[in-house]
Write a structure and sequence with these properties.
By secondary structure, this protein is mainly beta. The chain folds into 2 domains: 182 residues, Immunoglobulin-like; 151 residues, Sandwich (Immunoglobulin-like), CATH 2.60.40. It contains 1 helix and 20 strands. The strands form 5 sheets. Strands 2, 5, 6, 9, 10 and 11 form a 6-stranded mixed beta sheet that branches. It has a 5-stranded mixed beta sheet with strand order 14-20-19-16-17, with no helix packed on it. It has a 4-stranded antiparallel beta sheet with strand order 12-13-15-18, with no helix packed on it.
Length: 371
């Protein structure tokens, strides 16, 4: 087979010869943890024979940030992972090595995710995403490619984070009312039994609010806030978003409200810090918010926390194992049920057992966010 790099030219006549082109991952959700080996294959159905120069796989992890200032646009990008390989192609007997006949062709691949990759992430002004791109290059330059995203979950062991197991608290004493009419003061405190919590863990919240004013407090709430900082070569930009909120009722003048282990559940989010990425940083905090009646600003009391993947004082949880090539159908059954009337001719040597492989990931879909 003629040698070639994974770069190609413009999409040419091959477009009309392709009936199907898809990337299949062995994980149904296309979500992997750092250190996992990603297995999959490219599946191509040709309407007519075609000579090819190479079949290349690229697995890429990249971060991009962009925001607008009063004078210009700040932007930066970073590549955190890159794996590139030329996949083997074996044609039928008596056929040229670089000729693919009409019908189905399968191109298996595998690659291992490094242990220090950052998690996938998407924010309003930046994102970190991973994707696999399969490129078929034909002699003379025209090529066709297919791209499919996969997600990565990094590892943050809270047992290795400073102060993650220690209790934390914060308090405040503030006047409420407008500048010309102070109604009195409010004291508030919030505390947690530890600073570090794992994804999907519930946070027990203790809080106390004393309304020492003549004005009623309409409501109180505690929210989990994600703060993201984006970095470019010339500056930085931060944005905050509320992930989860739990509410309590109002507090009468001279009244008091107590929170006793009110539970706030952590959703599936990227771990704190986003280590391994230099242009995006993620921090989390709880915020106790107190809303007085009438014209008066809210009293807000923040408390920093750390969100990880391994809980404090617990070992790394066992991983779900995805067999690279599930075999749950008989040899006579069609191994590719997504499409009808598919030839089961396998032109590759069947080292990975492709005849018994069921595609478990959803079909590839258009996504303008992928180049």
């Amino acid at each position: 087979m003629r040698s070639s790099s994974c770069s190609g030219g413009q999409v040419g006549g091959m477009e009309s010869r392709l009936e199907k082109f898809q990337i299949i991952f062995n994980n149904p959700t296309a979500t992997y943890r750092v250190g996992d080996t990603v297995y999959g294959y490219g599946w191509v159905i040709l309407k007519e024979p075609i000579f090819i120069q190479s079949v290349c796989l690229e697995a890429v992890g990249e971060a991009k940030v962009e925001w607008m200032t009063s004078s210009d646009i700040q932007a930066s990008d970073e590549e955190v992972f890159n794996y590139t390989t030329v996949l083997p192609v074996k044609s039928e007997k008596d056929n040229p090595e670089d000729l693919l006949h009409a019908g189905s062709h399968y191109f298996p691949f595998e690659f291992t995710l490094p242990s220090k990759l950052p998690s996938s992430f998407k924010g309003r002004h930046g994102r970190l995403r991973y994707f696999a791109r399969l490129t078929i290059t034909t002699p003379g330059g025209p090529h066709h490619e297919r791209t499919s995203k996969f997600a990565v979950i990094s590892n943050l062991d809270l047992n290795k984070e400073p102060d993650a197991s220690l209790p934390v608290e914060n308090d405040t004493f503030e006047a409420i009312g407008s500048w010309c009419c102070i109604s009195g003061t409010v004291t508030a405190s919030i505390k947690l039994e530890k600073k570090g919590y794992a994804i999907k863990e519930a946070i027990p919240v203790w809080a106390e609010i004393k309304n020492l004013s003549t004005r009623r407090i309409c409501s109180t709430q505690v929210s989990l806030i994600q703060n993201v900082t984006y970095y470019s070569f010339r500056g930085r930009f931060s944005e905050s978003s509320t992930l989860v909120t739990i509410h309590k009722g109002g507090v009468a003048p001279r009244g008091k409200q107590t929170w006793q282990r009110e539970l706030l559940s952590i959703p599936t989010v990227a771990p704190s810090h986003l280590r391994g990425c230099k242009i995006i940083d993620i921090q989390y905090y709880l915020e106790l918010s107190i809303k007085p009646a009438g014209i008066a600003r809210k009293v807000k009391l923040p408390l920093d926390i750390v969100i990880g993947t391994v809980p404090v004082n617990k070992l790394q949880s066992p991983r779900t194992s995805y067999h690279p090539l599930p075999s749950t159908v008989s040899d006579s059954a069609c191994p590719f049920p997504f499409f009808e009337n598919v030839s089961d001719q396998v032109l590759l040597t069947d080292k990975l057992g492709l005849r018994n492989m069921i595609p478990t990931a959803p079909p590839w879909e258009e996504d303008d966010d992928i180049p």
